[in-house]
């Protein structure tokens, strides 16, 4: 099963200090990779690295500051070596009726969840391309699969993420860089569990249209990320993989 190992690889995971990002980082460490997690909250990153072990490191970075991303990637490669895997997991949300969303709020969500994803991917790919290899993962959402009220900006951004997954795969796969996307369904993170438990009607609606009839675990997304980043997926590029217990096709 050596095709599934990530031994010898260096992965950069944004938003890797908690939730799904931390689960992806943990799965990567378990698969043999060294992992650099990035985010804005140093205390959260420090706690995550302590949990992940000796093959995990962190860097503080505000991904919304686009002009600093080139130097950020250069610094990581100088300190830790070539980035083999990039996971664009970091993101923010805004829950608000669409009629009340301001232009500034909409733009802020797009900048962090879409524009920064492209900018960081471009900076990493510019270094992967001369090496002729690399894997870039984007993280989408069920919000891109169907309409969910009060998250119009987030939906727009995640729909864009799925679009650029395909566009970048067409351009960069000939350079040896595979681009894929994971669309998590309803995953039982601390934040989502609290929200659903406080809204039993919504929780019942979620579970009633999920054929597997339970929420996913963060590790389910982490294991999917390992697969897509490994040699086991060497002929897969440009896909959007739902990890949702069948929610997207549920009735």
TrEMBL record:
<dbReference type="InterPro" id="IPR002347">
    <property type="entry name" value="SDR_fam"/>
</dbReference>
<feature type="domain" description="Ketoreductase">
    <location>
        <begin position="9"/>
        <end position="185"/>
    </location>
</feature>
<dbReference type="GO" id="GO:0047936">
    <property type="term" value="F:glucose 1-dehydrogenase [NAD(P)+] activity"/>
</dbReference>
<dbReference type="InterPro" id="IPR020904">
    <property type="entry name" value="Sc_DH/Rdtase_CS"/>
</dbReference>
<keyword id="KW-0560">Oxidoreductase</keyword>
<protein>
    <submittedName>
        <fullName>Glucose 1-dehydrogenase</fullName>
        <ecNumber>1.1.1.47</ecNumber>
    </submittedName>
</protein>
<dbReference type="Pfam" id="PF13561">
    <property type="entry name" value="adh_short_C2"/>
</dbReference>
<dbReference type="InterPro" id="IPR036291">
    <property type="entry name" value="NAD(P)-bd_dom_sf"/>
</dbReference>
<dbReference type="InterPro" id="IPR057326">
    <property type="entry name" value="KR_dom"/>
</dbReference>
<comment type="similarity">
    <text>Belongs to the short-chain dehydrogenases/reductases (SDR) family.</text>
</comment>
């Amino acid at each position: 099963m050596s095709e599934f190992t990530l031994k010898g690889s260096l992965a950069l995971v944004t938003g890797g200090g908690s939730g799904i990002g931390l689960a992806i980082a943990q799965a990567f460490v378990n698969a043999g990779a060294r992992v650099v997690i990035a985010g804005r909250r140093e205390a959260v990153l420090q706690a995550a690295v302590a949990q992940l072990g000796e093959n995990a490191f962190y860097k503080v970075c505000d991904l919304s500051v686009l002009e600093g991303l080139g130097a950020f990637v250069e610094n990581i490669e100088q300190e830790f070596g070539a980035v083999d895997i990039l996971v664009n997991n970091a993101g923010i949300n805004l829950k608000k009726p669409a009629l009340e969303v301001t232009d500034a709020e909409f733009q802020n969500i797009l900048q962090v969840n879409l524009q920064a994803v492209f900018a960081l991917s471009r900076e990493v790919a510019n270094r992967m391309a001369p090496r002729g290899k690399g894997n870039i993962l984007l993280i989408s959402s069920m919000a891109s699969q169907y309409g969910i009220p009060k998250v119009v900006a987030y939906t727009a951004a995640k729909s864009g993420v799925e679009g650029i997954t395909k566009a970048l795969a067409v351009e960069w796969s000939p350079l040896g860089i595979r681009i894929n996307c994971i669309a998590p369904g309803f995953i039982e993170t601390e934040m989502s569990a609290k929200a659903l438990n406080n809204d039993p009607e919504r929780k019942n609606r979620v579970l009633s249209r999920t054929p597997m009839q339970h929420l996913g675990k963060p590790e389910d997304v982490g294991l999917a990320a390992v697969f897509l980043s490994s040699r086991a997926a060497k002929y897969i590029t440009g896909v959007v993989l739902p990890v949702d217990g069948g929610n997207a096709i549920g009735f």
